[in-house]
Amino acid sequence: MNQFVEECRREWRRLRVPEAIAEGMALELEADLEEAESEGVSAEDVLGARRSRPRSFAATWAAERGVVPPPSWRERISAKSLAYGALAALTVVAGIGAALTIFAPPTSPQSGAIWIAKEAPGIWIASEAPSTVAGPIRSVVTDSDMSFRPLTGTDVSGVNTTGSILLIVGIAGIMLSLLFLLWATRHVVRRERVTG
Amino acid sequence: MQRMANDEQRRSQLLRGVLDLCLLAVVDEEPAYGYDMTKRLRARGLSIVGDGSIYPLLGRLERNGLVETYRAASNGGPPRKYYRTSPKGQRALASGASEWRATRDAVDRVLGLVGAEVRT
What we know:
The structure holds two protein chains of two kinds. Chain A is mainly alpha-helical. Helices cover 62% and strands 8% of the residues of chain A. Chain A has seven helices and five strands. In chain A, helix 1 packs antiparallel against helix 2, helix 1 packs across helix 4 and helix 6 packs antiparallel against helix 7. Helix content of chain B is 68%, strand content 12%. The mean pLDDT of chain B is 87. At the A-B interface, helix 2, helix 3 and helix 4 of A face helix 2 and helix 3 of B.
């Protein structure tokens, strides 16, 4: 069995070339190489410099014949692209977490310093429950229209906890993504060396 | 040594642009299988050089519908895959040959000038 043809077969299997077509190409090549050998013609004279690169030769032939199935969506989206996408998303998550952790009010606010409107939750900073509040469209609300309750430690610690969780998840995710990116880069370089 | 390598590289590049036309011309003359084409090209002074190989090119010609294939027994050997030009391939061959001649003539005119300068 011709070693070169066997290498081609392996590459066509890897590329998922339909078996009947791959076998047809293998038989065609094998018969040609055998005839050349019987006439004292070297494989280099038939295959050129590609004689030393069976996988590259097989891949090129299959691609030119148009028999390599199109890559699936998983193969189209490279590992590196996925890692970059994850890195960007996790950076945003970590950023939100950091913002919540840094800018959240202290867990024990001074009594009366922070107030929350019951009907339209939002944080109002005032020395006492506001009697009139200027809204975003310059509407004036009186205490008879809107009631307030002081911000409790539970509200603040909830914000802090959420921020911390997002920050930890974000940082851990960024580190994992960076490790994956390193692995993917090395994997691609190794694969290019093999097929190149 | 370096000059020989450069010559071979140039020859390989020149051939790469017209090898598909040469293959079409060979199988238009008479249907042939892969190695048979290699032999016929060599008999006319064209050997595979550098990275050249006819198989990927044959694959492209087949995919583009410029050649048709069929299996037939060869001289005592296993059945072989024969290639012959399709009507589309014959039109492509005529057009390509015309382009090649026009290019060759233009290059000859330029290189002819260079040759004259060297002689003087």
